Amino acid sequence: SERTYIMVKPDGVERGLVGEIVKRFEVKGFKMLAIQMFKPSEEHLKEHYKDLAQKPFFPKLVSYMLSAPVVGMVWEGKGVVATGRKMLGETNPAASAAGTIRGDYCIDVGKNLCHGSDSVESAEREISLWFPNGVTNWARGFDSLIYE
Ligand code: GTP
Ligand code: MG
């Protein structure tokens, strides 16, 4: 079933918003398969964001991501890639609706709290990068209360 990689960025970790972000995915009904705090290397972050290497903001993005630990998570569920992105909000918090994580908790694009995979293919690539030893697959008792 579909999986996505969600990451609380350094500002979210420092501001104590990990629990809030985890909570939103839990109460929605998605299933957590992995969670870990990381202090990634510059090379690791450049690999994660390799599609953006030519962007003018890339050096700033990398130094932002190195400024404190991050918390990476794998979440599973029907449509979790697209729905996860909706829950995060737009890339620019100023364009994010109230009720989304970025819409509710941040202001600037360079301090936008969280990351979410942009496609199923990106998700699988990012999950392999951050959790090379795999995740915990488990059967949840109340799936019949979430899915029709
Ligand atoms: P992620 O979930 O973090 O991948 O964000 P996204 O998919 O909504 O946006 P994208 O992948 O295009 O950009 C990755 C990250 O780079 C964004 O989340 C921002 O933190 C940062 N970023 C993107 N555009 C800009 C920009 O114009 N200026 C600055 N300073 N940062 C940017
Ligand atoms: Mg992206």
TrEMBL record:
Q: Which residues form the active site?
A: 115
Residues forming the Nucleoside diphosphate kinase-like domain are 1-138
List, alphabetically, the CDD domains matched.
NDPk_I
What keywords sit in the KW lines? ATP-binding, Kinase, Nucleotide-binding, Transferase
First-level EC class: transferase
EC id? 2.7.4.6
Q: Which GO terms describe its biological process?
A: CTP biosynthetic process; GTP biosynthetic process; UTP biosynthetic process
Query: Belongs to which family?
Result: Belongs to the NDK family.
Catalyses: a 2'-deoxyribonucleoside 5'-diphosphate + ATP = a 2'-deoxyribonucleoside 5'-triphosphate + ADP
Cofactor names: Mg(2+)
A Gene Ontology MF term for this entry? nucleoside diphosphate kinase activity
Output the PANTHER family linked to this UniProt entry: NUCLEOSIDE DIPHOSPHATE KINASE
- Check the record and name the InterPro entries matching this protein: NDK-like_dom, NDK-like_dom_sf, Nucleoside_diP_kinase, Nucleoside_diP_kinase_AS
> Could you say which residues bind ATP here?
9, 57, 85, 91, 102, 112
Return the protein name: Nucleoside diphosphate kinase
